[in-house]
Amino acid sequence: MNGLDWLTFILVMIGALNWGLVGFFGFDLVATIFGDMSTLSRVVYALVGLSALYMLWKMPKMKKA
Question: pLDDT (tens digit, 9 = 90+) per residue, 33-42?
Answer without folding.
Answer: 999 999 999 9
